[in-house]
Amino acid sequence: MAEIDIMELQYLERIRLNHPSWLSSEDSVLNVAITTLIAPICLFLRTFIRSKLNPCSYIGQYLLDCICLVVPIIISFTVLATSTFRLFLVLLILILCICRASEIQPISSINQRYPLQEFGMPYLNTYRALVNLCTIIVILAVDFSLIFPQKFHKRYTNGFSLMDTGVGSFIFSHALVAPESRFNILSESRLKRMQKCLISSSMLIVLGCGRLFVTWLTDYSVSEEEYGKHWNFFFTLALVKLLTTMIFCSLPSSATNFSWIVAALVGIGYQGILSLADFEDWIIIGDNKDGSYTGDFVHANRPGLFSSLGYCSLYLFGVQVGRLIFKARVKWSDHVKCFEKLVVIAAASGFLTCILHTHIDKSSRMIANLTFVIWQICHNTVLLLSSYAVDLIFALYSTPENPLIPGQCVSCSNRKTRSNCCCLLSAINKNQLFFFLIGNVLTGVVNLVVKTGSVGAVTAVATLIAYGGVVCGLTSLLFVFDISTKFW
User: Fold this and answer.
1) What is the mean pLDDT of residues 327-351?
2) C-beta separation of 77 from 35 below 8 A
């Protein structure tokens, strides 16, 4: 026993030397939530400013989106990270002042003035786009150690941080729009669903292999402690998609109405294995008790492989929330009821997160245990609620002549007709995979060209703004020409 403890201490010392931020003091659930809520608040201000300025040119719309969305998010994640709560309060007070000075329209005519369903559920689209936007900013910002706080870094074994929400948010946001969430599976056979799943998963596997090859070819530094020796984010997405589709195909179609029960069974079962069989310790330190990722494929990639079970549980929970969102709503009261249900989900999952983290098992992104899964449900539901709240607020102030639709405009809600439109969040939603891939590629390029660990604050922020501008500019350009990179 003493020998094992010594080896574990040696492993922790190696982590401390190679990744000191992983063992630094963790952040809190509340602070992580407040930090990410800066994005939907900026969305509110951007929509309000756009309604007043009404820029007509592509360049004007693009610059407005960058100034109101990209730049504030970069600053809040870096140089103002220590003042996040004060920044949040200032922006919130500004919103309250705007609402106070504006005229509320009659609720009785909201359905005619602001038919939410006709615009493709803008709050869901803006939530998914904001998740992508925050992700591509953070993956480069983390390399600028002088301006990116250690509390935002990924945790080694357990704890809460901003970067720990990345993969969980991607899984949850994809689950919200899964075929099972959109009630599309009743019209398709199980074989057809599996064929579609295999095609989309194979593309993710190709991307994962491509990333593995490129990092090997360029000798790009990749932390094995995150997923394992060969595993990466794309493999996790592919495996989760395959496993969850197999689960749904093996159950009656009506089982999708109760996917939260299946999610709970998977999550609790996985947590039981982690707790009762000391499986969690094995995932972290391995057979050699030193945290090495050598040996066969399973042992070399154990964090990535087995955390996929936890992400499957999160995906299944996301499908249940998606089914709640995609129910047809034609009245204002229907949206209010949906909003209230999401509040209950967020509150219940937040309470469970505190209980589980304190008394059962601390949240761990590395192994995606039950506490982490419940936290991600809470975190993403809160972010979804904030986007929904922005929608509902603007519904109260919209007029037939000036419908205020966060994240998009009337023109980009229907791309069948050519229009002078360049809404950034709509552009991100149209080509999410391209947006994420180009962000990853440019992150690698910046790290090869710039010594990110030693540059000053001004240079770091300027680099991040230029990087964000290029990624968003290329994505917006595809949207202007109505080009979709999804060919499968």
Assistant:
1) 88
2) yes
